[in-house]
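hey so i finally got around to running the thing on that chain from the lab meeting. sorry it took forever, my laptop kept dying and i had to restart like 3 times. anyway pasting the input first so we r on the same page abt which one it is
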Amino acid sequence: MAKKDKLTEALKKHFGFDTFKGNQKAIIENVLAGNDTFVLMPTGGGKSLCYQLPSLLMEGTAIVVSPLIALMKNQVDAMRNFSEEDGVAHFINSSLSKSAIDQVKEDILSGKTKLLYVAPESLTKEENVEFLRQVKISFYAVDEAHCISEWGHDFRPEYRRIRPIINEIGKRPLIALTATATPKVQHDIQKNLGMTDAAVFKSSFNRVNLYYEVRPKTANVDRDIIKFIKSNEGKSGIIYCLSRKKVEEFADILKANGIKALPYHAGMDSQVRSANQDAFLMEQVDVIVATIAFGMGIDKPDVRYVIHYDIPKSLEGYYQETGRAGRDGGEGHCLAFYSYKDLQKLEKFMQGKPVAEQEIGKQLLLETAAYAETSVCRRKVLLHYFGEEYPEDNCGNCDNCLNPKKQVEAKELLGAVLEVISTLKEKFKAEYIVNMLVGNETSEIQSYKHNELEVFGSGQDEDEKIWNAVIRQALIAGYLEKDIENYGLLKITPKGKEFMKKPVSFKITEDHEFEEEEEEIPVRGGASCAVDPVLYSMMKDLRKKLSKRLEVPPFVIFQDPSLEAMATTYPITLEELQNIPGVGAGKAKRYGAEFIALIKRHVEENEIERPEDLRVKTVANKSKLKVSIVQSIDRKVALDDIAVSKGLEFGELLDEVEAIVYSGTRINIDYFLNDVMDEDHIEDIYEYFKDSETDDLEEAIEELGGDYTEEEIRLVRIKFLSEMAN
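ok and heres what got predicted. didnt touch it at all, straight out
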C-alpha cells in the first residue's frame, strides 16, 4: 500500500495532480523497476509524464530523444515550471551556442539535471557521445518513436541509429513512446530498438469526444471553411495544409475575412514561427494555419476544431493531427476535405523516390482514400487501422453514424471476392483483385494469363466502387486481412474460410460518391448559373439600353458571366461590385451606378437575404503578376518577351492580359500589334467586333478563322475592348 501512496505523493508533489491517468501508473512502475517499456498512448493521454516523473525519482539523468527543437523547448520550460531548480531539465541541439552547451554539461555533471532532451542528430555527434559516457544515465526515452519506421507517417532515417549509439554510450533501460502506431509500425520500432521483450502498454485509440467528418472538396472550399470558423467564433482551431505556399496564402485569406489567423511552417524564420505559436497559445489569435510541422507536443488543451484543407498522406498522420483537438475531453470537431485529385497529386510527388518508399507511400494513400470514401462508422475504420476492435455499429459521433446510409446485402459479392483471392493463391493486392472481378485486361493480368481464368470478369455486373467497398468492409469484419509485410497482399482469414464453406449474411454500406467537380464555368448566353433569373434578365435589359446610349456592344459593358455573378451575390455598393469577376475599379465607376441601383431596389422589394456575409474576400496577391504585366506594356516591352520573362506560354500571357482588360483597366498594345500584324488585318478584325453581338472567341474564329490565327484575333479583341470599354 505504501508504495502506491509514494508514487501518488510524488505525482502530487512534482506535478500537482491527485491521480494518474489511464495506465500511467503501471508504466511508471515498470520504468522504475528498470525494465524496457513500450508505450502506445494517443495524443493527450499524458505520455510525457511517463518518463518525466521516473526521471525525478531515479538517480542520474534521463536522456530523452525527441525530433523537434520547438518541442524540446516547450517540454524543458514546462519541467522548469514544476521545479525550483532551473537546471532540472536541459536540451542539447543545434540552436545552442558553445557557452550554453558548456553550462548544460556543467549542470549535468553536478547532478542537478534529471532530464536531458537531445535531437537524434545531436546524439550521434562524437563529442556528445564522449561526454555522455561520463554521465550516470538513469534510462533512455525515445519520444515520437514512430519516426523509426518507414511505415510510420514521419520516418526519419537518423532515428534508425539510436540503438547503436545507446550501445556505445552505455546500456540502460529504454522507454519508447508514440501516439500512433499500427501493429506493423509497433513491430518495427521494437525490432529496431532491440526491445522485443519490452512490456507493452497500449491505451485505447478511441477518442470518444472527437467528431469525425469528411466533406467533398469543391471549388468553394475556402468559403466552407470560413463559414465553419465564423460559426465557431472565439474558439481555437488548427487548419492543416500540405504545402507551405498554401499555408501562407490561406492564412492571408482568413485575415482578409476578419478571422484572427497566423501561418506556421518549417520554412519560416524561427523567431516568427515561435511568436506565431505563442500568439496561438496565449489566445491572441484563434486559428493557426500550418503544415504538419505544427502541433507536435503543443499542449493546448482547448483546440476545438482541426480542419484538413488537404487530405493527409496517411491515416496515422490524420489521427495524430486530429488528436490535437479536444485534449481536455471537451468538444473536438475534426473536419477533412477530400478530393481524389489531391491524392493523385501526392502520388506524383513520390515519383523519383526509391521504389520501396513509393510502394509504402502508395499503400498509405490508399488507406486514407478508403477512410475518406467509406460510409462505415469512421471510428470503426480508424481503430481497425490501429489494430483495435470497436464493437459498436454506431458511435453516434461521426458524420457516417449520424447520417447512416442504407445497408445492402452483399453475401454473394463477398463470396465472389473470396473466390478470386483463393484462385489467385492470396498473392495479390486489392487493386488487382478488383481488376480481375470487373474484367479489366491490365498488362499485369495479361502477363500472368489470368484473363484466361474462369473468375476473370465474374463481377462485371457491379462497378469498381462496389467491389472496393466489399473488400474494405470485409477487412473490418475480419473475413480478410492485409499482409502488410508484403505491401498489402490480401489473405483470407479463418473466418473467411468458414464463410466460403458456409456463407452467412454480410451487409455493406456503399461508399460515398466523391465525383470530381469541374471548376464552375458559367454558361455564356444563358442564365443557367444565375441564382436569380428575374434580376438577370432585368440587368440584360439595362445593359442593352446602355449599349444603345453609349454606342458600344453590350458585352463591352459587362460580360454575361459578370451579370450571372451579380444575380448570384447581389452587390449593392461599388466596392462589392469590384469583387465580381471581370469588373475592375474602372468598369465599376463607369457603368456600375445604374446596375447597383437596380440590384438594390430588387433586393429591397423582394426582401432578399444577400450572401455577402459569406463572401470570401480574396487577397490581392495574384495581382502582383497583373501589375507587372501592365507596367511592362506601359514600357512597350514586346508581349512575347513579357511572356518569356514571366515564365508563361504566350497563350497564358494573353489570358492574363484579357483578364486585365475585362476588369476595366485600359492598356495600349498598338506598339506590338503594328509590329507583328498588317494594318488592314487589324482593321478587319476590329470592325468584326464592332458589329458583333458577342465577344465570343469561338464565334470570331468561325467567322474570321480562315484568314487570321486565333492569336491575332485575341490580340485585336484586347485592343478593341480596351479602347471601347475602358
